[in-house]
Amino acid sequence: MWKRVITGIMGLVFMAGSYTVMADDKVNTADPYAMMETVANQTFDRFKADKAKIEADKNYLKVVVEEELMSHVDYRYAGLKAMGRHVRAATKEQRQQFVEAFRAYLITTYADALGSYTDQTVEFGPSRPVGSAKDVRVYVKILDASRPEINVEFRLRKQKDDSWKAYDLKAEGISILRSKTEEFDGLIRQHGLDKFIEMLNEKASEPVKVDEKAAA
Where is the signal peptide (predicted)? Predict the structure, then answer.
């Protein structure tokens, strides 16, 4: 179970923030710290507002992820990083297909995490001056009465338009992007890039999985 929680923890953090901010507040994408907290708040409000739809169809969580989270995730950068050494030999079309499949895969992964959300508490670390930095870390603690706390480190990149987007996180020192890159490398070498893209799309199309024990 913890492997699933860790791989989906970005969605869980976006989901489980304090919910004092109303869903129609604008996201300050120029401040990575404020952006993370506001997106968490807005996603939580959306989750509450659409609770009936989610209970009727867990796959609706993919809609919530698509509409609330994905514009704040640098999935293209993360996807090309996840291709690892194979990106050099890939054609432009293959790179684009991989990025699109990776994006869909992330949506399903985050939706799975949200489906298992119960009553975890999230504590965001203090904001710090960004200055001229192009890459920052946002520190978060996941608190659950039934489990030890999880320390999370988000990585965010500054975009060309000066907005910030998340592209990786470390949970208890484990980089999700690095672990996925290693996992994908073996599968690409075994099956070839085109077949792996097909496999990634198949994984992304799977229905949302809910851990009934966690969600109870």
Answer: 1-23
Give the residue carrying structure tokens 């996603």: 43
- Indicate the angle between helix axes 193-204 and 92-115, nearest 10 degrees: 30
Quick check: 175 and 75 in contact, CB under 8 A? Answer: no
Q: Is the pLDDT of residue 202 over 90?
A: yes
Summarize pLDDT for 96-153 with one digit per residue, the tens.
999 999 999 999 988 887 776 666 677 888 999 999 999 999 998 878 777 788 888 8
Indicate the residue type of 105: Y
User: Helix, strand, coil shares of the chain as percentages rounded to 5?
Assistant: 55, 15, 30
How many angstroms separate the CA atoms of 87 and 95, rounded? 7
Could you tell me which residue, 100 or 210, shows the higher pLDDT?
100
- Its pTM stands at 0.85
Which residue, among 216, 182, 208, 187, has the nearest Cα to 4 in the 3D structure?
Answer: 208
Tokens of 83: 């291709």
Q: Which two tokens stand for residue 153?
A: 């480190």
Find the Cα–Cα–Cα–Cα dihedral 76, 86, 198, 205, rounded to 10°: -40
Does an H or E element contain 43, and which? helix 32-49
Closest CA to 2 of 150, 105, 154, 138: 150
